[in-house]
Design a protein that fits this description.
Length: about 190
């Protein structure tokens, strides 16, 4: 009957409208999620052209989101870095995810140290999520310097202690001998 057909068409139309509304809501949630993320997010095509970038990516690079759009992703890296360690385009095109640590070139020519995870999206583009690790790298370098300086100091102290004629022992908090100087060793060998 024509009433049944009309009802089915009306039901199909309502379902189509609901699906369209849900799609719009889903896209809005996605957009909010991407825009509010603390990490920089850049979406680019297989040729490397940036299609989209969030607010955090703009802050990290010093470019506006509009300026980032249309740039090549390679513009965000130093030529010498890419020469030494090329980007993983082939791995990405093969569907593999990558995690890399690189210097990201800012608009003013300075750089930030970034941890960048990249993967292919279902539409064949790539999504890179980058986190500024500049402060972490500085802290790691300071720890390495501190460790090296302490090793150097320990070597110097050991050299000084081993040249003294007195018998010197290092004792821990439990009163156990941890180490002795050269004079002590020579004395022990003679006796």
């Amino acid at each position: 009957t024509s009433i049944d057909v009309a009802l089915k068409q009306r039901k199909a139309e309502k379902e189509k409208q609901l699906a369209a509304r849900q799609l719009v809501e889903s896209e809005e949630k996605y957009r909010t999620l991407v825009d509010q993320a603390f990490d920089g997010i850049v979406i680019y095509n297989p040729e490397g052209k940036i299609l989209e970038a969030n607010h955090s990516a703009a802050i990290s690079t010093g470019y506006t989101q509009k300026e980032l759009g249309g740039m090549s992703v390679t513009d965000l890296f130093f030529i010498e870095d890419i020469s030494l360690r090329p980007l993983f385009f082939e791995s990405l095109k093969a569907g593999k995810s990558t995690l890399d640590y690189r210097r990201l070139k800012r608009k003013d020519g300075t750089y930030v140290e970034m941890e960048i995870g990249t993967k292919m999206t279902p539409d064949g583009n790539f999504m890179a999520v980058g986190r500024d690790i500049t402060e972490r790298k500085k802290a790691e370098e300071a720890l390495q310097r501190n460790f090296y300086e302490k090793q150097l100091l320990a070597q110097r102290l050991s050299t000084i202690l081993n040249t003294l004629p007195a018998y010197i022992a290092l004792i821990d908090e439990d009163a156990l001998v941890v180490d002795v100087n050269q004079s002590w060793r020579e004395f022990a060998d003679r006796n």
